[in-house]
Model the fold of this input.
Amino acid sequence: MKITVGKGSCGIAAGAAEILNLFEQGLKDNADCSVTVTGCIGMCYLEPIVNLINNGENITFVKVNEKIVDEILKYINGEENHAGKFIIQQEDIDILHSQNRIALRNCGIIDPENISEYIACGGYKAAEKCITELTPEEVIAEIKTSGLSGRGGAGFSTAFKWNAARQSAGDKKYVICNADEGDPGAFMDRAVIEGDPHAVIEGMIIAAYAIGSDATRQSFVEGIVYVRAEYPLAIIRLEKALEQAREKNLLGNNIFNSGFCFDIKIKAGAGAFVCGEETALIASLEGERGMPRLKPPFPAQKGYWKKPSNINNVETYANVPWIIRNGGVNFNALGTENSKGTKVFALTGKIAKGGLVEVPMGKTINDVVYGVGGGIKDGKKFKAVQMGGPSGGCIPAELADTTIDYKTLAATGAIMGSGGMVVMAESTCMVDMARFFLDFTCKESCGKCIHCRIGNRRMLEILERICGGNGRDGDIELLSDLAMQIKDGSLCQLGMTAPNPVLTTLRYFRNEYEDHINHKKCTAHQCKPLLTYTINGEKCTGCTLCAKKCPSNAITGEVKKAHSIDMEKCVKCGKCAEVCRFGAVVVD
Done:
């Protein structure tokens, strides 16, 4: 019998560390039951998640707390219990089983800190096959057959990048994993490293063999994982995985007794969003300020220390072992004509069942939001989804039948990005949402080019003025003009795509901009300077609670008589509407 506790970052935030300790203490004298950890299985909304595995039967308990631990321990000890009340619902099981999990195949299932569990699932067999049976050209051909494209956002052909690095002459080459996941609301890469670090390592081993091995099978390739320092658990588990791989001679010298040599080190980045761009990442690795440079030359030609370098993100590498073991044809069979395989998405925002999902390319936004995510929280109306992070765009609910692939999403003005999906409800102000993302982009701009450094700042100032109730005629046209100039003049893709949230909200929600500017109203009731508060005398009972809670003494009235609000004193904190039990406070 075995107990597993989901101890990814989401599980820890929900109390998994305490749950793990309770089980360890409760079962310390039970030699027949072991306790171990797993990563995030994707159902973050149900954390902490505990699995009881006994004779092949798996019972999953969700939202586990101290009381539920006691009931599970009673069940294990054969005592009378109520553990059955806390078992996962069939609806959630069906959602999990409806996904095609390739990159996430082991997450939430194996112990990420135990290499034996990864090997038991067929781990490192793909790397062994490549190194001992296939030529580098055959490996690249298999990746080409799969149609795998980069999952970091650009969707560039993985096989093309690998082949370009292989064809580039150099006495030293580098395989780099971009784990600098900086999009607000995105946590796919973090969860994969926390839950299945060996899949990433194995993918990098295969890439190293493909781009660097010569006739003597001496690769002269080094690996680097560039991961943001804000992911401490991911770094800890990756370090452990690297140590274990070295102990089993899966990294280092003479891997699989083939003469092939390859090792990986970790570089913790300081968290600059721009370092997600590959040339800025390289600059950071070299000890310079993370700033993009013009291409060509591309990293495959002159990358880290001017040597040929292949850069893919975490999810891309995690797919590679599965492709080698199961065949590129089977990966290619999933998805659409232009976008093959599956994609991992982080569902956040106003979604009912937030977390990680992995679905084939070609599913619609509705399929993900409603079929997997359970729809909108609190029964509210679906308004839009932001895809591609700060560099992406807002897709309205009326386009929710849009298929998820690179080409189709680009036609809406959004991008696939690394896989963040921020779901918005009817209460979301789209003007304020554009302001939020542009504020992030401005703060994260490296400042190298004028269009990004100054142009985005001017756009942000206009948006702040509009949200503050000081919008002017011509602001919409000025925003559009600035956005196009920034897209045309910025040095890197991050600068070029920074105006996307503004352009898409202008395209699909222009009426909200007009309401803010022309009528000084925020119909979503989110922009405080544009709100007015009044009290409906017919509903007000004169309980005085709103007056007692008002921080600016703007509410007056006698007990059991209708109150009133002095808008000159009102600071628009919303406390009155929050505490009123009779719905008497009207926000407009």
Q: What stands out?
A: The chain has five domains: 2-97, 115-332, 342-425, 430-518, 532-587. DSSP finds 24 helices and 18 strands in the chain. The radius of gyration is 27 Å. Residues 1 and 57 are 10 Å apart (CA to CA).
